[in-house]
Each structure stands twice: as C-alpha cells, then as structure tokens.
Amino acid sequence: MKKHRMSALLAVCVLAVASLTGGCSGQEAATKTDAAKTTDAAETETTSAASEIETVSAADETEPEIDPETMDIIKYNIYVEMNNYMIDVLDNIDNYYMVVEYADEFAFVPDSGYDYKFGIVYLNTDIIDDALTVASMEPAYEKLDELAKEVAEPMRALMEGFNKINESYDFADNQYAKAKEYHSLIQENVEDFATLAYEFMDEVDIMGNEQMAATEAKMLEEGNLIIYNSSHAITIGNQILDECYAQGIDDSNLTELDLTNIRTLYDELAATVAAYDEAVSDNNQLMKESLSTSAPFDGLLNSLVQSVEWMIKQVESGRPIEDTDLAPLGSMAHIHSVLSQCIDRYNTVFVD
Fold first, then answer.
1. pTM score, whole prediction
2. Could you tell me the sign of the dihedral formed by the alpha carbons of 66, 69, 75, 81, in that order?
3. What is the DSSP letter of 323?
4. What DSSP state is assigned to residue 210?
5. Which of 8, 34, 40, 228 makes the best surface tag, with the fewest CB within 10 Å?
6. Are 38 and 9 in contact (CB under 8 A)?
7. Cα 335 to chain centroid, rounded
8. pLDDT for 4-50, tens place per residue?
C-alpha cells in the first residue's frame, strides 16, 4: 500500500442551535469550517449533533424543525469528521502493511523492524452511523451521500479489524490464529475502502475549500484577526502540501520538488503568522475574540513556518531524506505532523 499523507479538515460551528451543539464559540465556526481541517475536537460536537438529529426527527411533530442552513452545517461537519476518520484509517493501513505483507495469506514483512501493533490506533465507529443518518437527510449532497453509504461497510470492517489488533495481546497464540483472522478482514476490505475513501475525501475537499474561503472572508470582515490568521496559516500549510502532491512529490523524491510556488506560499505563510503574532500581542484584540491567553498556539504556528523553511533548505541541499518513515526535520511528513498539531490546537482553542 502507498503511504498516505493527507490533512484533516476543520469543521464549521453551528452558531444558531445551542440545543444541538453545546457551547460553540464564535470562532469555532470559522475554525472547522474554514480550512476544512479538524480531528477529535469537532467530533464530540458533530457526533452529538447527529444523535440529536435522530431524536428531533422522531420527536413530536410539534417540535420546531432544524432550519435548512443549520442542518446544512451539521451535515457538512459530520462529513468532515468522516473525512478525518478516513485519514486515520488510511494511516492504520499504512502502518499495518509496514509490518504485514500485502497478500491474501498472512505473513510478516521480513526484517521490518516494527512490532505487529506498530502505529495501530483505536477508532470509534460511531461516526459511520452518524454519516449514514445524515446521508438520507436534506440537503442532499448528491455524490457525497451515495459515497457515504457505499464506504460505510468496508470502513466499519477495517476499523473493527484494527481495533481488535489494538486491543489484542494474544494475537501470536496458536500460530498467530487471531492475527490471521484480523488479516483476512483487513485484506478483504482495504481496496474497496481506499477507492471510495479517496473519492469521498476529494468531494469533501472541494466543498471544504468553498467553505474555507467564505468563512475566512467573514472572519476578516468582522475584524477577528487572531482566528483569521490562525485559520489562514493552516490553510496555507495545506496548500503547500497540496502543491507538493500535485507535483507527484513525497519524501522519497523530495529533491525533485520545484520550489517556485512553494516559496511564494512560504512567504505568505510567514506574513500570516507575523500578523497573528501582532494580533495576539494586542489586549484589545484578545478581548474582542474572548481569548484569555496571548499564546493560544504556544509557538506552533511559528513551528509550522520553520518546518516549511527546513523543507525548502532540504530540497536546496540536494540531499534525499534518509528515513521516509520517521518524519525527520526537512521532510513533508514533518510539515504534516506540525500542521496536524496546529489543527488540533485550533480546534481546542476555538471549537471545543
């Protein structure tokens, strides 16, 4: 299986319905929606929203209905969260096949240097039920609704298989009987899942870009400079990785990267983070955006700038990345790692 380096998405906050999404700050909306990148932070909101939708649907018809705009945001957020879980599943797949041969019969990769459970994380399958719930609800998302229904079965099978691996301590007993059982489940579903997941994520990415542009424009218009520059820095970070991928580049051939567009994006990123630093140094701005600390990112955005700078220097040096599995300084994987931390922090500060 090929190595997947993809970014999570930010979700949009449902500002209009406290009853559906408990306490979302005004920035939350911008946060997850804007760059379309979120992880566990928005999960609680979107999951509870989905279960609440079911309750509302089955409740007395005299109850007020969810307005279309709010329902659209809730549905979008759930699909964003589905997208992010797909990335986690793909990461599990990558890690699994670093240790186990990609073949019908269970066998270890010779001299992989990794343990059987290396990098396998436990994933909650509730998001699949949430996605199936909203897939049949208005507004219709056409292709996304159908893809959500199609990917549900192989995605659930893989998540359950990896969860069993994560929790198993007797997989080696009886000549790896359980490991062979888990392998069959994974091997049978991995290709179908990957095909559908990439289609799904492509569709969400298109939608997310539209949401992101609109949300960031609104942030700027309302003078919310801290959340805007935070979001926009994440947006640019993703654009930098997207530019690398568009050139067919990963860490194995990083020295072939054309830096022309990367340098332009780097300059924009550096300027955006500088604007963020200026905004958080203004007590009036902190009060306007209801922030109690002048360092909500603890330097993570500056680390993002530095990670891109290191990658540029790595390319300029002409030296290849020696170990593409460890995300060393100067690698795309390191940018991805720092960017993920920025997204998690963004969600914690502006969404939770």
1. 0.70
2. negative
3. -
4. H
5. 40
6. yes
7. 14
8. 445 565 555 433 222 222 233 333 333 333 333 433 434 444 444 55
